[in-house]
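Worked problem 6 (solution included).
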Amino acid sequence: TLKAINNLKLRVSNVDNFFGNCSSLRNINGLDIGGTLTSVSGLFKDMNLTLLQNITFGNSITNFTSCFENVSCITDEMIIRMPDHTGMVVDYSRMFAGCVGITKVIDTVYPNGGSNFTSMYEGCTGITRIENLTVNGKLVDAMFKGCSYVTKISNTTFNNATSMNELFMNCTRLEELDEVTFGEHITSADDWTKNT
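Solution. The predicted structure is:
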């Protein structure tokens, strides 16, 4: 019964259901994913892990949809090495949704002008701080929806966003937006602060 993976290198073209039958797996420390792979969608979703650390993604990966969704051991100290996606269209939707171990999103730049950040951190109820964040993607709908313990968002920029529906919806403890900037391309902002 597989319980731990240490320093595994994958050079594959498909990871669909890769960990699907690993119900006893608890620790992954050191995973290098590359080759011709373009998608890690749902790779770790809903896994009952106690440790997930030192993950490296290859340059060709552009779909991270739900990659870590509902993995409660994800924390701020987790080391994830992401490729430089400048100029590429990348899907980060629901990448960390439901990861309750994340407590802050700070000093982060997402440089990809055409990318999808929909619900990226939705339901991350552990987040209390969002600051010094730059998001250059077009879709930021519900990006922080349900982050109910955030009280202040500061020095944050959404440069190329066109749609920000439900962006901070159900952030029930949010009291202050300080130096938050949206660019001139917004066309839809329905319920962006509803129940906030």
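Discussion: The beta strands are 4-11, 27-34, 51-57, 80-81, 104-110, 129-135, 152-158, 176-182.
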